[in-house]
Amino acid sequence: MRIPCPYCGERDLSEFVCRGEVATRPDPTTLSAGLDALYLRDNPAGPTREHWYHAQGCRLWLVVERDTRTHAVTGARPAAEAGS
Amino acid sequence: MSAAYRLATGGLIDRATPLDFTFDGRALRGFAGDTLASALVANGVRTVGRSFKYHRPRGLFTAGPEEPSGLVELGSGARREPNTKATTAELFAGLRVASQNRWPSLKFDLMAVNGLLAPLFVAGFYYKTFMWPAALWERLYEPVIRRAAGLGRASGAPDPDPYDKSHAFCDLLVIGSGPAGLAAALAAGRAGARVILCEDDFRLGGRLLSERQEIDGRPGPDWVGAIEAELAALPEVRILRRTQVFGAYDGGTYGAVERVTDHLPRPEPGLPRQRLWKIAARRVVLAAGAVERPLVFGGNDRPGVMMAASVRTYLNRHAAAPGRRAAVFTTTDDGWRTALDLQAAGVEVAVVIEARHAAPPALAEAARRGGAQIVLGGQVTETRGLGRLRQVIAGDSAFGVDLLAISGGWNPQVALSSHLGGRAVWSEALATFIPGEPPPGMSVAGAAAGQMTLAACLAAGGRAGAEAVIDLGFKARPPVFKADDEAASVSPLWRVAGSRGKAFVDLQHDVTDKDIELAAREGFRTVEHLKRYTTLGMATDQGKTSNLNGHALIAELTGRSIPEAGTTLARPPHLPVAIAAFAGHHRGVHFRPARPTPSHDWAREQGASLVDAGQWKRAQWFRRPGETDWLETVRREVTAVRTGVGVCDVSTLGKIDIQGPDAGAFLDRVYINTFSTLPVGKARYGVMLREDGLVLDDGTTARLGAEHFVMSTTTVNAGRVMQHLEYCHQALWPDLDLQMVSVTEQWAQFAVAGPKSRALLQALVGGAADLSAEAFPYMGAVAFRLDGVAARLFRLSFSGELAFEIAVPASFGDSLIRALMAAGADFGVQPYGTEALGVMRIEKGHVGGGELNGQTTARDLGLGRMMSRKKACIGKAMAGRPGLADPQRPILVGVTPLDATQRLRGGAHFLRLGAEASAANDEGHLTSTAFSPSLERWIGLGLLVGGDQRIGERIRAYDPIRGGDVEVEVRHPVFLDPEGVRLHV
Lengths: 84, 985
Ligand SMILES: [Zn+2]
Hints:
heterodimer, A: alpha+beta, Folate-binding fold, 4-stranded antiparallel β-sheet, two-stranded antiparallel ribbon, 6 strands, B: alpha+beta, Ubiquitin-like (UB roll), FAD/NAD(P)-binding domain, 7 domains, 50 strands, binds zinc ion
């Protein structure tokens, strides 16, 4: 798999670390909302947004759009600009 | 010495370069351009090995990488290479070849008795034999089957050869250099695209090397030479010979292995044996050709039975005749060409047995003129001959021949098109599976796509190559070549009914048509079940010649069409790849990078024992002459620190430099305690949590300026913490104005610990810094210059003694350790290693790796009161959930054995006295243990259920694995100087 880092260009999967689906942070106000945010993932069969870290490159955290059925990567932009 | 079966003329061999080699000790000669197989054919060697289960004599069945039975052992010693296909091994002078799977000799194989024990080895024998009396399995059945069934023997020695890895990038990757592949590469190369052309063989050309076909009026091999010369002259085209593309991966990434020096008599210095390529290709043309399909009839495995197109390869490419008097058994037009090529080479063709009721008229007429008898609608039911073929039986007729060429049609090499999940689809016209939807960026051309004539291959290849690069913005057009569309029709014949003798579907795994019938009767009807039950297609050849025949049989036996029965899904690798090629140079000491500390050279000079801490090499202890036991050494080092002064390299701790107006606010959000209020010139111990509320890491962070912090992390978590902080900043709070960078590698840092540490350091720094208790109290931090070099000093203590940490740029680390030791000579300074460091931190109850295990909360570790109530931080909300706040969670405690002579071992479980040793009664475990020189006994830290409420209680530390069962007293985890008097002097 190859990921188009907006800073470094298209790079090999082995340079990145995947954190998983872009998720909301645990809501401190209710326990159940916090647990849902921590442990429940949509895990869609299809397009999904994930956090990837360009650990062996520019150290940017990226929001990568990927189709879980085909591993087709359709976009990647800095998490800082993605408003997540 | 002329080989008996070498044709007098022709072939792509260099008769001026003879190559001598041995087969089972017999001296033989071939020529440059020979494969091992073609040299064996030329020398009349027909039997090259014994089969997997039945030990039947086996010969060369094909001439290519699909070979199921011509497997041999090459080389000797550590370089012995079992299960090598003779058909792809390039001949070189001095090659030593041994047949395999025979005992004591190839001719006289005692294990051939397996053939008589055939019922033992029927389909599913693995599963069925497991149901015999279990007591006999280990002692009897398993060893017998192991010896009887199998292939070559591994050398058992470490691989002595180097392997390499390379990355490559291209606009177009062309897989295969037959007519379609060459046309594709040429179309793209002429357009100026970056092209990589991979060919498994040592020579470009594919089937063109094996046929008597012409392109543009020139013989195939001549045309190949001209195209190759043009490609080689194009600067953006790279040709990789001896390179097998074995897998298609996501995002246009392809795996290939190049056999760099396998064909040389001895490894060339400086060259790897094999090179693993990772190729990122924007577009791909798969032109891997097709594999000829065998016919299933009685005795079809007898040496002398050979695929018809492979016969042509031996004749035309290698000028080697696989026999003197041949029969052809065909159900395709293609088989007739073999009859004609045999006749052209001077081999008598006794008979062509055509399973169809009509033969291609022109070809049949030519064969008849060449002297062949023709049988239409005939089938071979049996072969005869001891050890090798003597006679072919077709119905009532018998033919005395030593070669039977068989032709059942062609199976496109669809595997690479289906590695990413694309299912092959059935073609009724070709009676085979052709590629379905290939992966994005790939097109399939030529025989791999079911285009079975030369003209079609050339046109399709050129078109695919041009379209691929036009898609990328190049101007390209398909090259035009003149060639014929030869007759290529086929009527499938899946097996010959009424065969006598074993009819093999899978030659390598000895799977017969009867095995498939048995599987069908026993209910293994799907192709995936059939595969696992009979092991059809599961040998090293992955069923390249056998799968479709097997699947056709199960379809027929279960009353379904072949597409209904389906076919198994191909996965990488397409051909076996040595594990060493995947490892490359990452083995032995190069398995992963080694990180030496700044004092590494000095520590080696001192005779330090080194220990791995992640990638770091750290000094574990510094043994002195006369010390016989590491415990003795560690005891001395601890005592030196507790009574004098010691020095330890702590550079491996992670160091992160954080700067910016919001740096303090940022730290407040990642640590459970507050850092924005930390005064400049002070350090503070902090704990950070994961989002789920469990402890991520701990360490001290110092404030060197209003907007400048330096964080330290544990050695093991340095990378993880950096990644976490970057995530928090970039993904969660990009509005905070700060920057951070890891400076772990940039600073050398040494702990100077013990009552005499201040005196030592003051002697070293002189007037550069004032270290008095008033000027530089506990947790002080200061940047200063030491002899013109940037330096930092922290008053931190892991040992519980008066202690400092001094840091300089890493390149001065070696100088600093030597300066510290020189300055400390008067104070009796001693270096100490990680073991003494660990003992002292356990004596002080500081948490370490055993306690920061990813399952503990701050409260579990006795650090709960650090949690600020005034602010939020990562993990705070979840740390308060009932499960993590439960007072009955395991809490950090100290323990000491009641009997001071008894030893504690980490990992021992806590049990109440008198409680049965069962998992239900488990109350926690010992996380860290050490012999404490200060307490003169073993001490331990552990996590005990409700531990903070149980100080003084007696429990058991139970360690059944190492025979430990020690009664211990629960204590406060700080064993030494709980008031911290020593720290604050
Ligand atoms: Zn990057």
